[in-house]
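Same chain as my last thread, 333 residues:
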Amino acid sequence: MSPIRPKRRSRNFRFRARHTASPQDLGRFRREPDIPKFTSPRPSNSVRSEVNLPRDGAKEVSMSTCRQFVLIALAVSTALVCLGKPADAARCGSSPAGFEAWKREFSEEARAKGIGASAIAGLMQANYASATIAADRGQRSFGLSLDQFLAKRGASAIVSRGRSVKQSQAALFASIQQRYGVPPGPLIAIWGMETGFGSQRGHQNMLSSIATLAYDCRRPEFFTDQLYAALKLIDRGALSASTRGSMHGEIGQTQFMPKNVLAYGTGNLDVAANALSSTANFLRAHGWRAGAGYQPGEANFAAIEAWNAASVYQKAIALMGRQIDGEGASAAR
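reply #2:
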């Protein structure tokens, strides 16, 4: 009688038992740390599979299993691409080389979304703003201590002049407070901090700055929204393609981004009264309550946080506002 041989286990069975992976395990995403004001998760550069095909015996893997694996990998790759960038978005870049091609592609998308010919023409005249990119990469003052930040921004001078402005334009600030519930202190502190009371509103071409940042791969989603807002404002005649502003495209006496101009602007923001009213309108829309405090931990501090995401900036505005409104001894502490 022939000896009884032990039943051999299928190699296919061993492969399936050890190496089957769920679709959720086939890809990973890596998020970059938050930066002041914009976040942009970026997908990982590759899709790592937990499935390793054996070096030998490839014929033992069924065709259906291979097809399933390929379909899963394709589905995950497609999902990563879709999550990383909208299907109709112009491709971003990190150098001037692709900017002209990007403008043409973006202009077609903007035209399809209803942006008018004058705004499109202005966009096509925009230049790659190298100075804006350098400024965007070099924002170091937000990493200073509060005392260092106050000294660098000239807080004592802002408070001193702010008190004088509060007295000389008392009727204007009383009208703003009555309408929006925001007292003079924080408005004047923002005005002084942003533009030195209107004396330093920037000399960069607004459209070039925002278009460059929308093209740049660092925060394209945020600045694409700002670019569409700028184009709409040009279409309406509220801005022009030659409008000047600061490095990131902020405009006016208190430095509004275009999307906030659309939402909260109350007129020509190069006029101080309009800019201050618009700033108060922004703060009220972000939860400002008349009569409540605006220091850290108080009800209205959240509205200041909405104005600028940098913690040291927020604390500086609250402190200087309190000094201007007549509380506390000095901004320099």
